[in-house]
Specification:
The protein is 39% helix and 14% strand. It is of the alpha/beta class. It has an eight-stranded parallel beta sheet. It has a two-stranded antiparallel sheet with strand order 1-2.
């Protein structure tokens, strides 16, 4: 099950090797979805202030029969929130929404605002990161990281700050393996978390994916999620359907190196 295996950050904190993603799950549906995930063995829940569902994510965790220390909670600093004081304020809003005293992982959601992708926010990202370092040192967060950061975005933090990010959460799926960024992160002992491991569902109808999944007697979704693990990345599948939530964590098989290589050669379905 999802809570039997772990990745370990460079500070020694362990994170379950499959997370339950809640992106695009509305607040009114988040309670049932997270409850279903917890019921089926997930102990790693990923949310964000920008998802506008932290309240029901937190309520589901609090209402479920699981101790706080046995569930790993990730949230994120909104992409447009840049700077020291505003980062501290946003963090307080997040833990208030979730109804918890600390986070297991807190990420800068993106290096630039979503409506200004590519904007140079290096200096304000550094200020946000320094605020997160303070929260980490104060024991409010067990691990800190980034999301959607490129090599140069991360290098700017390495050059100016004290703590190397523990994680970088990026889109990673068959057809978009981001090999250069993955290698950079591995070199700096940064765990890569793979969001959209199913390419938002667009890859599941591929005849080649279906054929290879049948070879392993698994579903196309299971093959796609397992692919992320074969590359040493931590997948964050999302669903509100209980059967798929269960299926997405049943990954007790391996993809042969030859087949991984074939999958590496796929084109990005989302770029077509």
């Amino acid at each position: 099950m999802a809570n039997d295996r772990f990745f370990t950050f460079h500070n020694g904190v362990k994170i379950p090797d499959i997370g339950f993603g809640t992106w695009q799950i509305p607040n009114e549906e988040a309670y049932a979805a997270v409850t279903t995930a917890l019921k089926n063995g997930y102990t790693h829940i990923d949310t964000a202030l920008a998802y506008q569902n932290e309240e029901n994510v937190g309520k589901a965790i609090r209402d479920f029969d699981i101790s706080r220390e046995n569930v790993f909670i990730t949230s994120k600093l909104p992409a447009q929130t840049k700077g020291y004081d505003v980062t501290l304020e946003a963090f307080e809003e997040t833990i208030s929404n979730l109804g918890v005293e600390y986070l297991d992982l807190y990420l800068i959601h993106a290096p630039w605002p979503w409506d200004e992708i590519g904007k140079d926010c290096t200096e304000s990202n550094i200020e946000s990161w320094k605020a997160m370092e303070k929260l980490y040192k104060d024991g409010k967060i067990r691990a800190i990281g980034v999301s959607n950061f490129s090599e140069s975005d991360i290098q700017a933090l390495l050059d100016a700050c004290d703590i190397v990010p523990m994680a970088n959460q990026i889109p990673f799926y068959i057809g978009r393996d981001q090999a250069g960024l993955l290698q950079f992160c591995k070199h700096h002992n940064i765990i890569v978390e793979a969001y959209s491991p199913l390419a938002t569902g667009q890859i599941l109808d591929s005849a080649e994916i279906k054929e290879m999944a049948a070879k392993y007697s698994v579903t196309p979704a299971q093959l796609c999620i397992r692919y992320c693990l074969e590359h040493g990345t931590l997948p964050l599948p999302k669903s509100t359907n209980e059967a798929r939530i269960i299926e997405n964590s049943q990954l007790d098989f391996s993809i042969s190196p030859e087949d991984v290589e074939k999958l590496d050669a796929f084109e990005d379905v989302r770029s077509k």
